[in-house]
Amino acid sequence: MSPSSRPDAGSDARLRVALLGSTGSIGRQAVDVLEAHADRFRVVALATGSNAEELQRQAVRLRPAVVALAAEASTPELPTGTARVGGADALVELATRDDVDLVIVGTGGVVSLEPTLAALRARKPVATANKETLVAGGHLVMREARALAAQRAASDSSDALASPLAWLRPIDSEHSAIWQCLAGERSGTIARLLLTASGGPFLDTPADEFAAITPERALRHPTWRMGAKITIDSATLANKGLEVIEAHWLYDVEYDAIDVVVHPQSVVHSAVQFVDGSLKAQLGTPDMRLPIQYALTHPDRLPSPAAAPDLIAAASLHFRAPDETRFPALRIARDAGRTGSRATAALIAADEVAVARFLEGSLDFPGIPRLLEAAVRRFGEAADQAPDLPALVQLDREVRAAFASGPVAVA
Ligand SMILES: NC(=O)c1ccc[n+]([C@@H]2O[C@H](COP(=O)([O-])OP(=O)(O)OC[C@H]3O[C@@H](n4cnc5c(N)ncnc54)[C@H](OP(=O)(O)O)[C@@H]3O)[C@@H](O)[C@H]2O)c1
pLDDT tens, 301-335? Predict the structure, then answer.
């Protein structure tokens, strides 16, 4: 199989796609891209959590062979020819079907890790936006992706699938930017990675006002339109901390060589500094459909529904260092990354609890990084820093239970 088409497939050479999390922010934008390139992609499977109405609409438009809905009680009316599967293994079942060539993961949470691993083990490339996949399971998924790439490289080193990134394809705009910067570059030439951050809505808010920040204010992101969880993560810079960990795994770069640069306009999506001092950046409008599409068509490029950036209209681009005193989540995440995968798994589980509690009103804004630090100290510092999948799922459960309610103090 070529990475973005099936040249040996007879009359219908379209790539057959399973889309997990099809009704979410990433999922809906992935549907836009897949529909814009219906001549290249055929949607075979859709999975979602509880939004039966939207799933039904998508099924009518895309005519997949199968859908999965985690909420067992909902019964969407499906078009003829579309079956429904259920149960705890539904995501794995969809991600490993024989008639699926590529899996898109737009689900949040640790629930995404098992289908991602299963898809890779079934030799299917995975385009993923999900954070847990790399933050909690980077040591597991990258081992699979590297092994698959090595097998391809052994027979043909110029094969597009001879790179781990062709198997585990990042959708996040920052990681996509770095991936795009690395096109055509040789391994061993990266000096530093520069991840850009918009800085969120509180970039210039004094620290003594942070306790009064409401969910409503934190949900107003200045440049990106995203799901609620990632929008709050952008406001605390926890999202950038998670991305530093993801970049470490994806690009095999040490934490000391990954910088965060605040860039409020979100035009430069990230950059790579090479050993000769050259800096290569990728620029684009803040539209996730571009990195989603790149992950699907790599190494090809196709016209995109996303608009190109207008540099003359932008006039000037600004950059500054992040303030880790006001935004400690960045430091906490980097430290967890240096400790290992148990610490980062505790961190991301804690982040989900902290954001949910902030949104429901049982934790204030400064309480979010406080909870992250408390969880990493309490659950993340054990000796085994490369837990297997069952241990990660168990850890996720323990962290959630420990911090679900009550005051949070760092031990
Ligand atoms: N949004 C962005 O721009 C963006 C950018 C970069 C990275 N990411 C990352 O991408 C992931 C998804 O983000 P998002 O903003 O798209 O989240 P979202 O809007 O909350 O969407 C999550 C999707 O997953 C589905 N889902 C939840 N539980 C499920 C289950 N057990 N089985 C199957 N599907 C399930 C949801 O279904 P229901 O809607 O039916 O509940 C929904 O379709 C996160 O890890 C996020 O950090 C997002």
Answer: 999 989 999 999 998 999 999 999 999 999 999 99
Select from 19, 23, 74, 359 the residue to mutate for testing ligand 1; criterion: most ligand atoms less than 8 Å from CB: 23
For 238-256, the DSSP string reads: HHHHHHHHHHHHHHT--GG
- Is 92 part of any domain? yes
Nearest CA to ligand 1 atom 32: 49
How many Å lie between the centroid of ligand 1 and the Cα of residue 21?
A: 5
- Tell me the best of 19, 22, 26 to mutate to test the pocket of ligand 1, counting ligand atoms within 8 Å of each CB and taking the most: 26
Q: Which of 25, 236, 242 to mutate to test the pocket of ligand 1 (most atoms within 8 A of CB)?
A: 25
Q: What is the pLDDT of residue 361?
A: 96
157 within domain boundaries: yes
Q: How far apart are CA 42 and CA 5, in angstroms?
A: 11
**Per the domain annotation, does 274 fall within a domain?**
no
Number of domains in the chain: 1
- Calpha distance 245→398 (Å, rounded): 22
Q: Which domain range does residue 108 map to?
A: 15-170
Out of 88-92, 95-99, 111-115, 156-160, which region has the weakest mean confidence (pLDDT)? 156-160
Cα torsion through 133, 286, 27, 5, rounded to 10? -80
Alpha carbons 202 and 213: distance in angstroms, whole number? 9
Supply the DSSP symbol for 385. -
- Ramachandran bin of 207, using left for φ above 0, alpha for ψ from -120 to 50, beta for the remaining angles: alpha
Ligand 1 atom with least separation from CA of 225? 3
Residue 35's CATH number: 3.40.50.720
Report the C-alpha gap between 138 and 129 in whole angstroms.
13
Residues 119-142 have pLDDT tens digits of 999 999 999 999 999 999 999 999
pLDDT for the residue numbered 15: 97
> How many whole angstroms from 230 Cα to the centroid of ligand 1?
10
Confirm whether 61 is domain-assigned.
Answer: yes
Residues with CB under 6 A from ligand 1: 20-27, 47-51, 70, 91, 106-108, 111, 129-131, 172, 226-227, 230, 288
